[in-house]
Amino acid sequence: MALFGLFRRRPHERAGFTLYTAAVEAARDPALFGEDAVPDTLEGRFDLVALHAALLVRRLHRDPDPRGPALAQAVFDAMFADMDLNLREMGVGDMSIGKRVRRMWEAFHGRALAYESALAASDLPALEAALSRNVWPDGAPEGAAGRLAAHAAALDGALAAQPFEGFVQGRVEWGVPA
């Protein structure tokens, strides 16, 4: 009997994957990258995916619906399954995958906590400082961190305005222009 449980999907697995995929698409908006914006590097792309995923997880956790945490976990699980797959496709060896994914998890977790804290306090300067520290460790181009913080705050507001049932069905609108 227990063997059949191995082939059963988790309740929000499909929606979590679809929501995460939408977050990645939003994070790849070319308007977010450039000389005076986020660097178009592996690290810069990770930071934008982490930001969008963190905003989505924040929204799902804040909803009073009891399915919110499970759906947030499904988004998180999809993200790190994707990170694992991407590392393998880049040729990272099996022996080091676990360590690399763990470092990515720790980086994501730290960023998500910093962004959550700033957003919960409606503290745009703290959000700007967190983004500057994470996205541009050697210093952000003039105004770039402020623009990204304003964009993230707008996305946070747009996500908060969306009905939870849409998320359960795998629908999310990232309709705030960069």
Structural class: mainly alpha
Helix count equals 8
The total beta strand count reads 0
Low-confidence regions: none
Short characterization:
This protein has helices at residues 2-5, 13-27, 42-62, 68-89, 94-120, 124-135, 144-160, 164-168. The protein is an all-alpha fold and 178 residues long.
Mind explaining what this structure looks like?
69% of the residues lie in helices and 0% in strands. The chain is an all-alpha fold and 178 residues long. The longest helix is centred in the middle third of the chain and has 27 residues, at 94-120.
Features:
178 residues; globular; 69% helix; mainly alpha; single chain; 0% strand
SSE inventory with pairings:
Blueprint: H1 2-5, H2 13-27, H3 42-62, H4 68-89, H5 94-120, H6 124-135, H7 144-160, H8 164-168
